[in-house]
Structures are given as structure tokens and as C-alpha cells.
Amino acid sequence: MEVVNALGRRKAAVARIFVTEGNGQITINKRDLVVYFPSPTLQYVVKQPLNKLGVTEKYDIKVNLDGGGFKGQAEALRLAIARALVKINPEDKPALKEEGFMTRDPREVERKKPGRPKARKRFQFSKR
Fold first, then answer.
1. Residue 1 above 80 pLDDT?
2. How far apart are CA 86 and CA 55, in angstroms?
3. If you compute the radius of gyration of the chain from its CA atoms, what whole number of angstroms results?
4. Is 28 within 8 Å of 104 (Cβ atoms)?
5. Residue 2 has what pLDDT?
6. pLDDT in tens, 44-100
7. Do residues 17 and 61 make contact, with C-beta atoms less than 8 angstroms apart?
8. Which has the least CB within 10 A, 2, 16, 59, 71?
9. How many C-beta neighbours within 10 Å does residue 102 have?
10. Residue 18 burial (CB < 10 Å; 0-12/13-18/19+)?
């Protein structure tokens, strides 16, 4: 099997991944998954597509993660892994799609507007 690459995005985070056959090693920015994401919840989020297809121990994944916070990065990585698995085996797409792993979450932070404290919040109105 050759190297399969894929891209995942979420909020401001971008995950570029390279998947090769191996024994389940996930390396993020030259660090191990457990070191990069100490939270078990985020490790679970990252591994969801692999667990769904039962291929956790089959592929080695090298990741370049950039931007955003840890939650956005974990979800960007999940999308990238799902896309790579579909490139490897297109028959897996319906199973991943029904779990929602193939959908790019389009929600982004709204920009701050002038004359307001935040995007939509307004300063307290004073009649007099």
C-alpha cells in the first residue's frame, strides 16, 4: 500500500495526514497521540473512524496539525482520518457517513462588529 494523504478542517484547525500500513501508531507533530492529546475524550474522538471500521491496529498515521484549539484540532483530525479511510476503501463511506464523520462542520467564529463589544452583543442602552 502506498501513502494515502488527506486533509481535515474544523474551526481554525487544519490536519494534514499521511496514512501507511503499520501497527496503529499515530504521530502528531512528531509526538505520540497520548502525549499530544492527554485527554482520553479527545483520544477517543480522534480514533472514532478507526474504531467504527475496526482497523485501529492496521494503519500508521503521521499528522501535521496547525491552528485552532485542542477540540477543533481533534475534530479536524477525525475528519482527515475518515477521508483517508474512504480513499483506501470506498465501500467504507456509508458506514462513516451515517456516524457523521464525513461531514465538514462549517461553523466558524463570527467577526466582531464595530461599535459593539462582541459579534452580536450590544452595550447597555441608556435612555437618558
1. no
2. 12
3. 18
4. no
5. 84
6. 999 999 999 999 889 999 999 999 999 999 999 999 999 999 999 999 999 999 999
7. yes
8. 2
9. 18
10. middle
Q: Are 41 and 48 in contact (CB under 8 A)?
A: no
Region 107-115 average pLDDT: 95
4-99: CATH, from 3.30.230.10, 3.30.470.20, 3.30.450.40, 3.40.30.10: 3.30.230.10
Strands (E), the chain: 4-10, 13-21, 26-28, 31-32, 59-66
Average pLDDT, the chain: 93
Calculate the alpha carbon distances from 26 to 16, 56, 62 in Å. Answer: 13, 10, 6
Q: What are phi and psi of 4, to 5 degrees?
A: -110, 130
